[in-house]
Specification:
There is one protein chain. This protein is of the alpha+beta class. It has two domains: 12-82, no CATH class; 92-200, no CATH class. Helix content is 42%, strand content 23%. The chain contains six helices and six strands, in the order ββαααββααβαβ. The protein has helices spanning 18-24, 31-53, 60-75, 120-135, 141-159, 176-180; strands spanning 2-6, 9-13, 92-101, 106-111, 161-171, 191-200. The chain is extended and about 75 Å long.
């Protein structure tokens, strides 16, 4: 509103004309659209809750909810690895590799590797690659072998090597009693490996 004196009188004039005031009002959705939005938000929030709720050991209810919401959670990449943290964290998985270099020298390494994969987010991204490899079913074998071959070709190209052998290394968590007895996380007894395959470089 603007006020200024004219002939010792105050004149008030609106800044917004009445015909344009209606156009500047906030848009308010109708009842039907509000119901649709509310249902969509409710389903989304429920899906977020189902993720950790369906971590094993589960119930019949949790299994049913998971089957219903799984397509949405996986498509939206909302199915985070809750089982890695609780209620019973399982073993973690690394990939150990042995490189045969062009000059005959042999080198060895693992990924993820805290010394090489830094900052920590990069380590986590590599860790997701190895956990994904472990999550693949044993059958059909071609699926796991295909991903292992892709990892191998990347390592061969990165290190300019002639051949690489991959191992999936499982790292178990010590039991509470073993921790109290002084067992370290790096204890060799907590590791086991399985051969993924040996791959030559394809030019």
């Amino acid at each position: 509103m603007v006020v200024w004196p004219v002939d010792n009188k105050s004149v008030i004039e609106p800044l917004v004309k009445p015909e344009s005031a209606a156009a500047t009002r906030a848009w308010i959705p109708g009842p039907r659209l509000r119901i649709v939005i509310s249902v969509v938000l409710l389903l989304h929030i429920t899906a977020l809750w189902v993720g950790p709720f369906s971590v094993p050991p589960t119930s019949v209810l949790a299994d049913g909810l998971w089957r219903f919401f799984a397509p949405y959670l996986q498509a939206a990449y909302l199915n985070h690895g809750y089982h890695f943290f609780a209620p019973e964290p399982g073993p973690s998985h690394l990939v150990r590799y042995e490189l045969a270099m062009r000059d005959g020298v042999r080198r060895e390494g693992t990924f993820p590797n805290l010394k090489e994969n830094w900052p920590r987010l990069l380590y986590h991204r590599h860790f997701m690659l190895t956990e994904f490899l472990n999550s693949l079913p044993d059958e059909p074998r071609t699926l796991r072998e295909g991903y292992a071959r892709a990892y191998a070709q990347h390592l061969l190209k990165e290190h300019d090597a002639r051949r690489v052998t991959l191992y999936l290394r499982r790292h178990y968590i010590p039991r509470p009693r073993e921790v109290l007895e002084g067992m370290k996380l790096s204890n060799p007894a907590l590791y086991e490996e399985r051969l993924l395959g040996s791959f030559a470089r394809t030019e």
